[in-house]
Amino acid sequence: xxxxxxxxxxxxxxxxxxxxxxxxxxxxxxxxxxDFPFHAFHFxxxxxxxxxxxxEAVAAxxxxxxxxxxxxxxxxxxxxxxxxxxxxxxxxxxxGDDVCSYNGVFCAPALDDPSLHVVAGVDLNGAGLAGxxxxxxxxxxxxxxxxxxxxxxxxxxxxxxxDLALLHELxxxxxxxxxxxxxSVLRLPGLKYLDLRFNDFHGPLPPELFDRDLDALFxxxxxxxSRIPENFGNIKASAVVLAxxxxxxxVPRSVGRMRSTLNEIVxxxxxxxxxxxxxxxxxxxxxxxxxxxxxLSGGLPESFSRLKDIEQLNLAHNTLVxxxxxxxxxxxxxxxxxxxxxxxxxxxxxxxxxxGDVAFDDVNNCLSGVIGQKLAAExxxxxxxxxxxCGGPPRSVxxxxxxxxxxxxxSPPPLPPPPRPKCVPAPRSAPLPPPxxxxxxxxxxxxxxxxxxxxxxxxxxx
Length: 462
Hints:
Blueprint: H1 2-14, H2 21-28, H3 67-82, E1 83-85, E2 105-109, E3 117-123, E4 130-131, E5 145-147, E6 152-155, E7 169-171, E8 176-180, H4 183-186, E9 193-195, E10 200-203, E11 216-218, E12 223-224, E13 239-241, E14 248-249, E15 264-266, E16 271-275, E17 288-290, E18 295-298, E19 312-314, E20 319-324, H5 326-329, E21 336-338, E22 343-347, H6 349-353, E23 359-361, H7 376-385
Parallel strand pairs: 3-5, 4-6, 5-7, 6-8, 7-9, 8-10, 9-11, 10-12, 11-13, 13-15, 14-16, 15-17, 16-18, 17-19, 18-20, 19-21, 20-22, 21-23
Antiparallel strand pairs: 1-4, 2-3
């Protein structure tokens, strides 16, 4: 203790030039530990400060990201390296460990551990990015949405996409993805919304697709070229759009199984043949039915009179025959009815009476006394070719009034009863429309479809 007192006296003498004893005492702190018992000594003054540590305080380093966030970080960095064009610098802030601050990346508490924040979704809609999807995308295992519409991503989908076990919505529309239908999509257990339209997928549709519990299915504007699988009606979706492909064969009669869910079905601009299945009449929730620009034959099933909620009914550009009956034009909620470019010979007067509230189009049929109709010789073609036969013997087409050349409507000699019509491909009548440039997707059948935006607040208990 004596040595310590001596040392203190020596140090105080070295600071004699300074008149501020308080400042001198502060400098002493640098020579002693913080817990040195200064209170045991009296220097003749009362300190005007609180003792502080002898070194500057250092901010605690942030904890390292947990493993799930580290995997998400590696996935997004691999994805950024796979992007070859980013015209709007959308991914310019994809740097650093804080992936939740990246453009288009959304985080939320993990479903199995709310104390952890995870990447719950990626929404790059309309960013104009070009590149491919890397294999590392499977590391985004907590993602519930993946919205990539209106970009320029290309190539096949990686098999690791099936590792996204929580994925609920997958929108890859309006890109340049190619290859057969991606099998990885069939292995996504929680998928409800699938949108692959406006890409370059081709080949057959796997029947397993229609055994999935999907709420919405959009496959239009690709190059799929198979028959529609017979289990088509198992899907129980509210919206099914298969337009602008090369689907062949009949509309499966299993379509009636969707009666409790289906609101909109669009099968336009394919190569479908055969008759309209009467089971469609059981789809009492249906608001949109578009089977235009195919090669469907026969007449309108009377069961269609049960479509009480139908608003858009498009039967144009087929080879349908017979009459457009009164009930077809008295459907209560009907807004648009097109039967143009068929072979109908009669239209109920109620169709024209509702012209004020229903858009009705019957041009290029076989209607007597109505302008803009087919030539008489054309109107005989469906009868001569047997197009009017759907699973039974030929049905005669009513002869038109004498204002047309009835000689063109004379039936040929009776034909033997044909077998149920084989739904065979027919020549394609119109080229596929090109995909739109990135931006707003064009409507299909007059209906504008788009993937839903991420909910706000994002994935609260997703």
